[in-house]
Amino acid sequence: MATIDFRTKINWRRRYRSPQNAATEHEILRIFESDRGRIVNSPAIRRLQQKTQVFPLERNAAVRTRLTHSMEVQQVGRYIAKEVLSRLKERKLLEVYGLDELTGPFESIIEMACLMHDIGNPPFGHFGEAAINDWFRQRLWPTDAASQPLSDDRCLVGTLRLREGEDTLNELRRRVRQDLCQFEGNAQGIRLVHTLMRMNLTWAQVGCILKYTRPAWWRGKPPESHSYLMKKPGYYFAEEAYIARLRKELDLAPYSRFPLTWIMEAADDISYCVADLEDAVEKRIFSVEQLYQHLYDAWGTHEKGSLFSQVVENAWDKSRSNTLSRSTEDQFFMYLRVNTLNKLVPYAAQRFIDNLPKIYTGDFNHALLEDESDYSQLLELYKNVAIKQVFSHPDVEQLELQGYRVISGLLEIYQPLLKLSLADFNELVEKERLRHLPIESRLFQKLSTRHRLAYVEAVNKIPRDATEYPLMEYYYRCRLIQDYISGMTDLYAWDEYRRLMAVE
Predict the structure, then answer these.
(1) CB 452 within 8 A of CB 429
(2) Which DSSP letter does residue 88 get?
(3) If residue 242 lies in a helix (H) or strand (E), which one and from where to where?
(4) Is 70 exceeded by the pLDDT of residue 150?
(5) Which are the contacts of 367, defined by CB distance < 8 A and separation ≥ 6?
(6) Measured between alpha carbons, how far is 403 from 390 in angstroms, rounded to an integer?
(7) Coil, strand, or helix at residue 234?
(8) What is the Rg, in whole angstroms, of the alpha carbon atoms belonging to the chain?
(9) Could you tell me the CA-to-CA distances from 185 to 41, 177, 216, 422, 448 in Å, in that order?
(10) Which residue from 31, 21, 204, 45 is spatially nearest to 119, judged by alpha carbons?
(11) 18 to each of 24, 42, 434, how far by Cα in Å?
């Protein structure tokens, strides 16, 4: 069993211009304060204020955006972190685990990971992800290496036909296609932090947002020992070398997770479950009385003293008995939120401590709040009621379908850039405008300078005479389009789609 020493995990060095010495607790804390400043002041965080939590294009400011949700997750993450440290201190284990001088960085890493956990999400949330993946699956070359790409009018890469016997290149082609068809918000978050925003955060801070540990190009079934940790893509082919370095710096085995990530994940689980139900009442999808009945019916067996009675029924009774200063709705959600936190946060903290040996090595193949306990059942209750009563509501589904159409439509609009030959696109990148490519020139000009520079930097690292150059150039060109569209806010994507489709 590995010795638990968090001094080897809370790595304060950076990829670029790393401070050479940080001998004291104060110096290390200053480094992580710098991380906080870089994160809080980043455009990616600001854009969260116009990205969907549940209800796309919502005009009611009381309904959560990704930013307000992330701020709530940040607070819960801090609460869990403090609870963990307090319990370890009571047992005189802080020094044993190398945390006695790292309590500040421990809290800060978790807080900032919570604030950042959604920065890679595209417009319209999971429907935006689905739109990107569906569009590329339908237009990239076939997965069968022996087959030829589709004809040019059906496939974006008709120019990339490969000679038979080029096994290495065919394998690379399969990997690239799989990678491009597995767009995922968590993987895009890693790409934003390192490649696009170049935030140069500490290794520990980036490690904490690597929620899933399988690469997007993974094919086949993950090993049973890491099935939960690898259930979604965690990073792209483009960031493979960076993640390899990250694992080395944090002493992480392949497909293992950074220890503090479990706390960030638990904070998110606790936060969004109650928040989604509160937003649904704010949107008048159901009344608070109807919500209570939905929760009551879905819990099943009701026994005196059960967790349901301590949390939900207690909140209901208190909200009914004191309506002078606040509305019943406000009272109910205030008590429901407090009761839920007061039960789930200590439980999550204890689960972290009880499973610390496997969490420290990154191999704990579960979420902290995923077990057979009543605490896990309470979270599932909130999730199931939201799935059944909120996400399936006609108004929500209509907005999600509109979001899917907007993202698909934007990809279609920018498709001419993907249909250009390698020579034409190289010339366009170099000169930025070409008279014989008027449409493509205007589309290229609309792309963000940051994204264009990331493309140029990646392509320039590949030797022009390398066999894989055409394939990898096309990969980074597709990434360029995905980066640009996924970085839009809901409102900007909606407006851009309407402008370019001339429907205003």
Answers:
(1) yes
(2) H
(3) helix 240-250
(4) no
(5) 228, 262, 265, 266, 269
(6) 17
(7) strand
(8) 24
(9) 20, 18, 11, 29, 19
(10) 45
(11) 16, 20, 42
> Up-side HSE of residue 135: CA atoms within 13 Å toward CB?
24
Residue 420, token pair as written in the block: 């250009």
- Tokens 């009551």: give the residue: 296
| pLDDT for the residue 165 | 39
Does the CA dihedral 318-320-324-325 come out positive or negative?
Answer: positive
Is there a contact between 332 and 316 (Cβ–Cβ < 8 Å)?
yes
Active site residues: 69, 117-118, 268, 442
Q: Which residues pair with 90 in a beta bridge?
A: none
Q: Nearest-5° angle of CA 142, CA 144, CA 149?
A: 40
Phi and psi for 20 in degrees, rounded to 5? -75, -40
Which residue's entry shows tokens 């030829």? 148
Task: Tell me whether residue 157 is exposed, middle or buried, using C-beta atoms within 10 angstroms of its C-beta: 0 to 12, 13 to 18, 19 or more.
Answer: buried
Cβ–Cβ < 8 Å for 267, 114 = yes
CA distances from 356 to 61, 265, 362 (A): 40, 16, 9
Tokens linked to 50: 């116009």
Assess whether pLDDT exceeds 70 at residue 351: yes
Mean pLDDT value of segment 496-502:
93
Find the angle CA(353)-CA(357)-CA(359) to the nearest 5 degrees: 75
Helix (H) / strand (E) element for 215: namely strand 214-215
How do residues 202-231 score in pLDDT, each as one tens digit?
999 999 999 999 999 999 899 999 999 999
Average pLDDT over residues 136-152: 55
Expressed in percent and rounded to 5, the helix, strand and coil fractions of the chain are 60, 0, 35
